[in-house]
Amino acid sequence: MSKFDAGMESMLDTFVFESSELLENLDDILMRTEDSELTEDDIAEIFRVMHTIKGSSAMMGLKNMSELAHAVEDIYFVIRENPGLECDRPQLYELSFTTSDYLKNELANLEDDSVPLTDFSEFIERLHSFAKYLNDLAKGEAAAPPSAGGEAKAEVFSADDPESIRAVRVKFSETCMMPSIRAMVLMNSIGAEAEVVATMPADLEADSADDEINAGGFVIKLICDEIEGVISVLKDGVDVETVEEIRRTAPAAPPKEEPKVQLSAGSEEEGVSTYLVKFEEGCMMPAIRAMVLVNSLVKEGEMVRTVPSNLETDEAEEEINKNGFRIEIKAKDPDRVLGILRDGLNVLSADKLEPAKKAEAAAEETKEESPQKQKAAAPKKDGGGAHGGGSLISVKLEKLDRLLDLVAEIVITESGVTSSPDLKQFGGNMDRFQKSARELKKLTDELQDVVMSIRMVPVQTAFSKMSRVVRDMNKTLGKNVDLVFVGADTEADKSVVDILGDPLMHIVRNAVDHGIESPEERAAAGKTERATVTLSAGYESGEVVISCEDNGAGMDPKKLLAKGKKNGILTKPESEYTDAECYELIMTAGFSTNEQVTEYSGRGVGMDVVRKNIETVGGKMFIESELGKGSKFTIRIPLSLSIIDVLGVEANGAELSVPLSSVREIFRPEEDMLIKDPGGTELVMLREKCLRVIRLAEAFELGGERRPLMDGIMLYCSEGGREAVIFADELTSDQQVVVKPLSLLLNKYDLKSKGLSGCSILADGSITLITDIGELLKYNGIKTADGK
Amino acid sequence: MDHRTTSGQLLTFGCGDEVYAFDIIEVTDIIEVPEITVLPMVADYILGIMNLRGKVVPVMDFAGRMGFPPPEYDEHSCIIVIDCEGSLLGVKVPRIIDAEAFEEDEISPSPVENSCIKGYITLGGKRVSVLDGMILSEKR
């Protein structure tokens, strides 16, 4: 069985890549702030990194990483909640850096099945005690920081360690160079005498190992027949100063003689219980059933292994039919596990195997499993080979960005060359030039299309991640939520889809966790329809619109307001808040309606991070909700790379560009087409259709004289269901431009909602402003056909 | 935090009879006044946007922003481009004076909150108002 959940292989690359990036980011912050001040933003960012890693590794089924991240998150939670807390900073940084190293190391080893998952539980203990110390500190109690390296003796043994495990602490002489290397040698030397279960520090290759050993000694937890023999071997080691056996602090019963058979047969970790599950004979695809069982146990404890180990092979089915399915799990509550197993679909029987039986089974397994292991390993290797020599290559996104920029410049330069005024002096006969120019235009157009298409990916990639999220949450939260996709084949730029991943995950989680009620609550509210979360995607006026809609409880603006008040995030008197503004509160930092912190939704980091992520790419987020009916989160992100066709128009001396896609017809009005409403509104009758006239110069407050409508040009525009006629002085050009967003510094003028979406630099270096017809019509009060 | 004094340079410019300064760390360019594309629907002191080597940068009239009467612009007038945490802003000023060295502790901080002027310093016998780019830009 591979380290992460079956079915997640396709996510591995993304997971490793994203997590590595986050950790890079973490290191940057830590290094930057170690000798200076940790600002609020930095803390929030560290918190976000840990939160994301916690979530995504839990999704991958990597419980150890998820727990580690959670522990660190807890620490930074205390720090975030108590600004100005003076704490033991060196230790904080040491812990943070070590976490980062551990996680990176774990990521690097993920694909290598021969390296087992690291057990971080000891380190997590340290993190917990540090978090506790911070908490005490915050409460004003003078607490001594837990000592950095020297674990107290009591910590050596965890509560669930069986008594056959002994522990030895080795101290090296002070002059000893690189004690970690010495420790490694010692471990090898006792190989014949005992079996090493764990060491402290766990990772001898980490840089911190030397320091930890110097501070607290090197602790070996082992199983052996004669501890004296081991100690004498250890005492003979180079540079070893003292060797002492660590005894349990609790008056434990004298160590029981473990049945020897277990050592020889299992090489198992202690505390592991083994279950044998048999499926009904008529059960289709027992391997799938087995996989489901394995996933259902995730919460119960650490899965050690299963037999057969690889459930995806054909042989697995046969073996399960023949011998049953064996699960070895380090469970907190073995009886519960048994219960879960027995409740499984098509399960005929599930039994807990006693050690003696287990040995038998294990012996059997060694015979049977070894050939299969090889079989399972072989195809994997082939798969790996395809990566190197196949027809796919991965390219850095920056290179594609650069390529796109260049193409955009080429397209613009090309139109600059072919329409250069200098060409006029050559007179009429330019046939050959025109022919070549047309050829060039064709080629550049194609080039542009190709480059754009390289970067276009369906939003499906972001959506499909969510099925997994919802599935897991259904399992753990007991909510039968259906996830429905609409328009998942909508394509958007890679960067846009990438950005969507994180926010979507948060939104979907919130929808399932907070939005959808429990089945009982739904029944009580008389809701008969299935609990559904609908993810939909589509285009609208040059933007990708993604929405997540649930048919759950909806949000109560009053509750949100009360909560906001309690958390002190209101910025104006309560009575002035509209419902829409109340919903927006949940996107404010430090807001969370769930008292309980769960694996799936946190402490209000979610939504404000979501909003921040989306806003950095020029997107917007809207929330609609109806109490009892459900909520809808809508994200609108501009199609980031926008080379668009525009019509240049002049209005009272200003140059503006209108996207060609919004224009349906261009015409000069006839006298009899013009109508004036008694209220003064100017109208135009265009083929039985009465349309409002919007004077561009007035809509944009350009000033100047009011021009007679007969003296200008009219553009019949429609966008997003709204229609009107735009009036301008003159049509000046028809060209392709690269849209650049307006500076962030101009955000406060909200130009986008007034109809100015951006600007563009033309071939001659001048700037043209680009209008957004949809917004312009909306801002000027044009209604859609259905009255919105 | 350490209390060593840090030294740097101030870019001083004149507007009316007063002298103002930006910390030179904030300044990315000093350019002649280029063609400025007028932007509709913004405050009067936003002159428009300009093309700075392929980047579109908004331009602000310094005197207008401070609420002063329009000064006389001539061939010495220029645009100081400052970096406001990643966003560039052009500030049109009547005339650049000099770049002068200063020590951080020579600046007397202004007690006024959210003022464009973060402090005052006396250079060559003349009081100079040191500007806060972030507040000037209204980014926050």
Q: If you had to describe this structure to a student in words, what would you say it looks like?
A:
- The complex is a heterodimer of chains A (788) and B (140).
- Chain A has 788 residues and is of the alpha+beta class.
- Chain A has six domains: 9-138, Four Helix Bundle (Hemerythrin (Met), subunit A) (Up-down Bundle); 153-258, Histidine kinase CheA-like, P2 response regulator-binding domain (Alpha-Beta Plaits), CATH 3.30.70; 261-374, Histidine kinase CheA-like, P2 response regulator-binding domain (Alpha-Beta Plaits, 2-Layer Sandwich), CATH 3.30.70.1110; 397-457, Helix Hairpins (Orthogonal Bundle); 459-638, Heat Shock Protein 90, CATH 3.30.565; 643-779, OB fold (Dihydrolipoamide Acetyltransferase, E2P) (Beta Barrel).
- Chain A is built from 24 helices and 26 strands.
- In chain A, strands 18-22-23-21-20-19 form a six-stranded mixed beta sheet. Chain A has a five-stranded mixed beta sheet with strand order 10-12-13-15-14.
- In chain A, helix 3 packs parallel to helix 5.
- Chain A is elongated, with a radius of gyration of 33 Å.
- The model of chain A is unreliable at 142-154, 250-268, 356-389 and 599-604 (pLDDT under 50).
- Chain B is mainly β and 140 residues long.
- Chain B has one domain (9-137): OB fold (Dihydrolipoamide Acetyltransferase, E2P) (Beta Barrel), CATH 2.40.50.
- Chain B is 7% helix and 52% strand.
- Chain B is built from two helices and eleven strands.
- Chain B is globular.
- The A-B interface holds A 36-37, 654-655, 700-702, 740, 742-746, 748-749, 751, 754, 756, 759, 761, 765-769 and B 1, 35, 37-43, 46, 49-51, 54, 56-58, 84, 86-89, 137-139.
